[in-house]
Amino acid sequence: MGEKREYRMEELAKKAGITVRTLRFYRERGLIQPPRREGRIAWYDDTHLARLRTISALLERGHTLSGIAELAEAFDHGRDVRDLLGLTAPTEETPVRLTPEALADVFGDQATPENLAAALELGYLGTDGGEIVHVSRRLLDVSATLVREGIPLADVLRAARHVREHADALAGLFTDLVPHHADEQSLPRLRPLARSVVEAELSLALDRRMRREQ
C-alpha cells in the first residue's frame, strides 16, 4: 500500500480545486471530518480530498449543500466495506472501487444524496478510507442499466430491499438442508445448485407473469 499523504490547508484546497475560504466553510458545516492537529498546524489526508471531490461532483450536478451534508453524515456513519464483505467470507461477487466522480457519472442526475445514502444503508456501497466501494459489479451494472431504461434509481433501490429479503430467505432455506442431509463440506457444492434453482424458478415466474398480462 502507498504511503499515506497529508496536506496543509492551502495544499489541500489547491488539489481539490477550491479556495481556502470554501474549505473552511465546508469544515464549519461538518461536510468534512476535522483535521489531525499537530500544535497549531492542521493536517488533512486523502480521505478529506476524496470527500471534497465528492462535494464538487455533486454540486456540479445541481445538488444542494444541505442534501450533501446529509450524504456526508451517511458516509461518516456507513459501514466499512470490510464489514459488508466479511474479512474471510468467500464470495463470487467482484467489488468495484469508484471515485466519487465516477459513481456520480454512472447514475447521472439519479446520483442524489438521498439515493446514495439509501445505497449505503442497503449495503450496496461501503467505504474504504477515502474510496467508495460497490460490493458487486453485477449489481452495479444491473442497477445502471435499469436507470438507463428510465426506471428511477429510488425505485430500483426500493425493489432491491424486497429482493434482499427474499434472497436471505432462500439462502436460509438451502443452507438449512446441509445439517440435515449432508456434511458442512457440501455447502460450497450446494451454492451453484441453489443459484440454478432460483434462476430457473424466477424465469418460470416471469413467463407466468407475462402470459397473464398478455
Q: Which radius of gyration do the C-alpha atoms yield?
A: 21 Å
Strand content: 5-15%
Sheet bearing the most strands, described? 3 strands, antiparallel
What structural class should be given to the helix and strand makeup? mainly alpha
Number of strands: 6
In whole angstroms, the N-to-C terminal distance is 57 Å
Describe what you observe in this structure.
Helices cover 64% and strands 10% of the residues. The chain has a three-stranded antiparallel sheet. A three-stranded antiparallel sheet has the order 4-6-5. The chain has 214 residues and is mainly alpha-helical. It has helices at 9-16, 20-28, 46-60, 65-77, 81-85, 100-107, 113-122, 137-148, 153-181, 187-213, and strands at 6-7, 36-38, 41-45, 96-98, 125-128, 131-134. The protein contains ten helices and six strands. The termini are far apart. The mean pLDDT is 83. The longest helix is centred in the C-terminal third of the chain and has 29 residues, at 153-181. It is elongated, with a radius of gyration of 21 Å.
Entry keywords:
single chain, 214 residues, mainly alpha, 3-stranded antiparallel sheet, 6 strands, 10% strand
